[in-house]
Specification:
By secondary structure, this protein is mostly beta strands. Helix content is 4%, strand content 50%. The strands form eight sheets. The protein has a 24-stranded parallel beta sheet that branches. It has a seven-stranded parallel beta sheet with strand order 32-35-38-40-43-45-47, with no helix packed on it. Strands 4-3-6-7 form a four-stranded antiparallel beta sheet, with no helix packed on it. The longest helix has 10 residues, at 96-105.
């Protein structure tokens, strides 16, 4: 069966519904109006260079199976080539004014097209009802000179005294350098094509001097209080910091995109939706220097400014490689995270698979619950499952007694809460540190953790590693399922192979239920 993910004016994205993770169980041929387009190998595939307002007949031949679907592209008002406005596309001339003029010129429902070329530019401001399309040989290249990036305020007040959020980083509204692609209070924005948006950080001081800047680094793309945004097909790379950062936005979707950065690049998270409603990340390939996906909802100060949980997020059919965490929640989650489903993904050589990080001080509204991971393949993931309520990074009080005390402290307005977490139909091979490392607070134990049909095997040459960033952390190697301060633990039809010690280790846990837990040394 074919599922339609996205229909734009010149591109479309589809999903073959299969039990396999990311890769299709069998390669297939794609036909459009009877003509063979290409061969596909992943569960998600895209079509580009389509005509607006046109009906197409799609057919997919997969072995003896055949799937058909008719679809129509969206209509548009007009489309312009940025070269018509003076863009050179030679990688030398500053094309910012030409591109921004094209964006400003167009009426609602139009498209700005980048033909093949390298377009050197400073930050661009988007507007509503706009499509940017990049040809497969088009590169939007960030200016390497930091002095050419405006610094924007974190909040502004209008003439009636109302405060508006305009900039943020690491869980706080704060001044920041304008991002290369920047949108504030926009809706119906589409960035599509097979081209590349390159932040050019490797040729600037964004990575080498990041500890000494007077304000927050820009993202590759920042969307503040936006609605109905789609990123489809493009490649994002070499961002000064996080790559895609939707902030207090709604209906934000990434389909079949590629985000990449060197493994040693600082804080180059691929996709960090913060305090957003309705996020879809489907069919994406992510390989960066920090977390591949980090779902956030601000620090406690942000929750007091505007309480909006991260909610209704779907991550499916993605490939994540070489990040600190494949899918991370936090650590800035003071508004809470609820109703997240991650399925049919492949995690390869990330430090952790699921990574939840919070701590005392995130606040009573930091309620993380309704988290489901299912149908996932992990290989060479150091610790597949980490839930850490003792995270000790990034805050001034990170080493304080309040953060690190193992005593049962009073529950107050600063205490976070973690609810239910379900892991099912997951296969993990070549783990190193631990099958899982789950560590709750004594005064606020995690409500419930369920493992069902989960298999973890360890690498023969496993190397000790700290599974969770916390004070007084100890390196672990081949530790089984470790859980501390959890009210209810359920392990069913699962296997832990090659661990040292018991397959299941629980401390300070309430109800512990096991059924058909297989252990193999």
């Amino acid at each position: 069966m074919i599922n339609t993910l996205y229909l734009g004016t010149t591109s479309a994205c589809f999903e073959l519904r299969a039990d396999s993770a990311y890769y299709a169980p069998e390669a297939y041929d794609i036909f459009l109006n009877g003509e063979k387009m290409r061969r596909g190998e992943t569960n998600v595939f895209s079509l580009f260079d389509l005509l607006p307002d046109t009906r197409y007949a799609l057919r997919v031949q997969q072995g003896e199976k055949e799937f058909s679907l008719d679809f129509s592209t969206r209509c548009e008002i007009c489309a312009v080539d940025v070269r018509q406005f003076g863009a050179a596309g030679d990688g030398v001339q500053d094309d910012t004014d030409a591109i921004q003029s094209a964006i400003n010129f167009l009426p609602a429902g139009s498209r700005v097209y980048f033909p093949a070329g390298v377009y050197l530019c400073r930050p661009l401001a988007l507007k509503s009802h706009l499509t940017l399309e990049l040809h497969q040989d088009a590169v939007l290249l960030g200016c390497p000179d930091r002095s050419r990036y405006p610094i924007l305020p974190g909040t502004v007040r209008d003439l009636q005294g109302r405060e508006w959020m305009t900039g943020a980083f690491e869980g706080l509204t704060r001044p920041m350098y304008q991002s290369l692609i920047h949108a504030e209070y926009c809706e119906d924005v589409h960035i599509v094509g097979r081209g590349t948006i390159d932040g050019n950080a490797r040729n600037s001081d964004w990575w080498t001097q990041f500890r000494h800047f007077e304000t927050a680094r820009p993202r590759l793309m920042f969307f503040c209080n936006c609605k109905d945004v789609v990123i489809h097909g493009v490649t994002g790379k070499n961002s000064p910091s996080w790559n895609l950062h939707p902030f207090y936005s709604e209906n934000f979707s990434c389909y079949d995109i590629h985000v990449q950065a060197p493994k040693d690049s600082p804080n180059t998270d691929a996709i960090d939706p913060e305090a957003c409603k309705g996020v879809n990340i489907i069919g994406c390939r992510l390989s960066v220097g920090d977390d591949c996906i980090a779902i956030k909802s601000g620090k406690i100060e942000l929750s007091r400014q505007r309480l909006q949980p991260a909610s209704n997020h779907v991550i499916r059919n993605c490939l994540m490689e070489f990040g600190h965490g494949a899918v991370t929640l936090g650590s800035e989650t003071a508004c809470g995270v609820r109703d997240l489903t991650v399925s049919h993904c492949v995690f390869h050589a990330t430090d952790r698979g699921l990574r939840i990080k919070t701590r005392r001080g995130r606040g009573k509204n930091c309620d993380i619950t309704g988290i489901v991971f299912e149908n996932i393949e992990m290989n060479q993931v150091i610790t597949p499952f980490v839930i850490n309520m003792w995270y000790n990074c990034c805050d001034p009080d990170r080493f304080s007694d309040y953060v690190k005390s193992r005593e049962k402290l009073p529950v107050d307005d600063r205490t976070p809460h973690l609810g239910s977490f379900t892991f099912r139909n997951i296969n993990c091979t070549n783990a190193h540190a631990a099958a899982c490392y789950i560590d709750g607070l004594p005064e606020a134990p995690i409500d419930e953790v369920t493992f069902e049909k989960v298999t973890v095997s360890f690498a023969d040459d496993a190397v000790p590693f700290v599974p969770a960033m916390q004070n007084d952390a100890v390196k672990r190697c081949k530790l089984g399922l470790y859980l501390n301060n959890v009210k209810k633990v359920s392990v069913r039809d699962s296997a832990i192979m090659g661990c040292e010690g018991n397959a299941l280790v629980t401390e300070n846990c309430g109800c512990v239920e096991t059924q058909n837990l297989h252990e193999e040394k």
